Amino acid sequence: MPVITVDTYLGDGDYTKPSNYNFPLAYIGTDNFLGGQVVAGQLALLLGGKGKVFLENTNPDVSSVMGRELGFRAGIKMFPDMELVGVEYCLDVQETAVAQVNVFSAQGAYQAVVTAGLEGAVKIATWDATEILIEALKRGEVDLILAQMPAEMGALCVEWGVKHLTKGAEIPKKVIPGFFVFTQENVNDPEAQKYIYK
């Protein structure tokens, strides 16, 4: 049975080399490492290139969130006056900024920042443009959101799967849709609305 992985890959995601995980035809999904770098760079811009950042992650066994963490770490290193003060797995610690790698940790972090009266003082950057997080962005409780393109991932999986099954088409081993960065400046733009998860 042909298999295409979407959003999260098996093993290290390199299906071209010999391994126990190279049986899928392709991975279709976000370049999580690159996305982590983008979030780090955008957060550094929000902080004027200077500040202490805490990264909250979920499960170190999930390839997608670990790619985001590794990309974020690499991205922060590009800014000499930015300091990554720690990485925790769903714990609540804040410095001058908090970055999350998924929607659930983001919702908890922004609620904690609001409850502590620190909105504006502690910047929040996260992944996944849910309607809840978009509303928090509009209220100024979240500062930036990196949106993946789940509809495009699904459509590409179906498209490539049909081509493979009906025409024998060879699927590229990695198909990487882009992403969209929501900020308070662009959150109401008509073009941005299609990237909100509904």
Written account of the structure:
By secondary structure, this protein is an alpha/beta fold. It folds into two domains: 4-29 and 149-178, no CATH class; 32-148 and 181-195, 3-Layer(aba) Sandwich (Rossmann fold). It is 34% helix and 20% strand. It is built from five helices and nine strands; from the N terminus they run ββαβαββαβαβαββ. The chain has helices spanning 32-46, 63-76, 103-115, 131-138, 150-167, and strands spanning 4-6, 26-28, 51-57, 82-89, 97-100, 123-127, 144-147, 174-175, 180-183. It has a six-stranded mixed sheet, sandwiched between helices. α1 packs across α2. The chain is globular and about 55 Å long. The two termini are 31 Å apart.
Going by CATH, the architecture of the largest domain would be 3-Layer(aba) Sandwich
How are helices and strands ordered from N to C? EEHEHEEHEHEHEE
Structural class: alpha/beta
Q: Stretches where pLDDT falls below 50 for ≥5 residues?
A: none
Mean residue pLDDT: 88
Could you estimate the helical fraction of the residues in percent?
A: 25-40%
Please summarize the sheet with the most strands. Answer: 6 strands, mixed
How would you describe the shape?
globular
CATH topology of the largest domain: Rossmann fold
Number of helices, counting only DSSP H or I runs of 4 residues or more: 5
Level-1 CATH class name of the largest domain:
Alpha Beta
Distance between the termini: 31 Å
Strand order of the largest sheet: 4-3-5-6-7-9
Radius of gyration: 18 Å
Strand content bin: 15-25%
**What is the number of domains?**
2
Overall number of strands? 9
What's the CATH H-level superfamily name of the largest domain?
Response regulator
